[in-house]
Design goal:
Blueprint: H1 2-45, H2 49-52, H3 54-62, H4 73-84, H5 87-100, H6 103-128, H7 142-150, H8 153-187, H9 191-206, H10 210-238, H11 243-254, H12 265-284, H13 291-295, H14 303-330, H15 334-341, H16 349-361, H17 363-396, H18 400-420, H19 423-464
Helix pairs in contact: 1-6, 1-19, 3-14, 4-10, 4-14, 4-17, 5-12, 5-14, 5-16, 6-11, 6-12, 6-14, 6-19, 7-8, 8-9, 8-16, 8-17, 8-18, 8-19, 9-17, 9-18, 10-14, 10-17, 14-16, 16-17, 17-18
Amino acid sequence: MDSLASLVAPLHDAIYAVMTPVSDFIWSYILVYLLLGAGVLFTVLTRGMQFRLFGHMARVTFNSRGAGEGVSGFQAFATSLAARVGTGNLAGVAIALWIGGPGAIFWMWITALVGFATSFVESTLAQVYKKRHEDGVYRGGPAYYIERTLGWRWMSLLFAFFLLVAYGLAFNGAQANTIAQGMNQAFGMPNWVTGLILVGVVAVVIYGGLKSIARTAEKIVPIMAIAYLLVALVVLALNITAVPDMLALIVKSAFGYGPAVGGAAGYAIKTAMENGIKRGLFSNEAGMGSAPNAAAQANVKHPAAQGLVQSFGVFVDTLVICSCTAVVILLSGVYEKLMANSPGQDIVGIQLTQDAMADHFGGFGEVFIAVAILLFAFTSIIANFSFATVNIEYMFKRHAKGAVQALRLAVLAMVMIGSVSQLTFVWDFADLSMGLMATTNLIAILILAPIAMRVLKDYERQRREGVKEPRFDPKILKRPDQVDDDVWPSKNS
């Protein structure tokens, strides 16, 4: 075992020598500003759709269960939420708190608030330019709308490759790693045993196709989200007097006053921002280009309707579930003790969340988090496979079936490898691939935003005219010829 480690170490160091500076540059100098800037711009262009249309957004989401053939709007929402709700919500929030301080939670919230509009734009574009597939499930996403509108197949292939690396490999390793850590701490189960079991269960679902994934997500995601919310509400109720101080700590730390300062307020703000935005993006995925792959699968009457549904997913993921994790940790005695006694030490994210829950509920808390992360991360893995499938089919076209078979094997291998690997490398690899993918997609949707605005205006116009279920006519677009007639036929054709 030692000889194997000595052989792998040089490769590990070489990978880090390339990966670290690239990842740091993307996150420190490009993506933080691009992500927030795009979110603010889209919020202005949509006239604050996340505030104006929030109630309608929620109603559309819960009324979108019926789809006839294919995948319903709610199933597409559940699939994208399955990918969003995973390690980012439990382990990722804990890591953000540990590295960036409580202020990271504030910047996570800001990322989500502007992320509503970003998610709407990318998901609406995915709906407009989706394609019909032989299995009855639509295909679409950034790779499709970039090529259809801009004609830049090189950029589409670049995005598809980054997503394949991120969702086929990196993120699945991160999810499996967190499940293994949680099961080990709660039940003493060896990581390799968890890995083998996980591989078997994941295989059953992903070999059933995209409809199987959508049905599984639709059943599991609402139950796990509601259960986690209820437990967090109990924590809030039991510690209600400490809530004002907790909120004050989050806001003060975001601007350089708090446990992450360490004598350098500017550095503390930068650290809180970078970690809050990074983990917020990893969690809610707004702007990353992942959710549009699920959004495109939905069988709906108007693209904007599914854009609103996907925007609501950002609310559920970050403003509800991530906040639940922050509440559980900050209202426990665990975080404060660690900051006082062991500042700067490496920490496994899920263990901090489990320790905090155990502080509130004893053994039940530790077991509850282990089960929660098992469900959260499991559904993320199968949703990740769904996204990767769409993009590998796009890349290989005529050889898509063989490529998907190879992808299934790669995903199962990465689940096993992730279960027994070190957390740090898996998370760092995920950060890099996510950064490259998000940068590519954000550049594209900034160029294509006027199309999404035109679609939103059409949707709102029909609603003002009393139309209960607006229907989309591609003739409202400047280039209706870029839209498939068998997907969106013109009303007058």
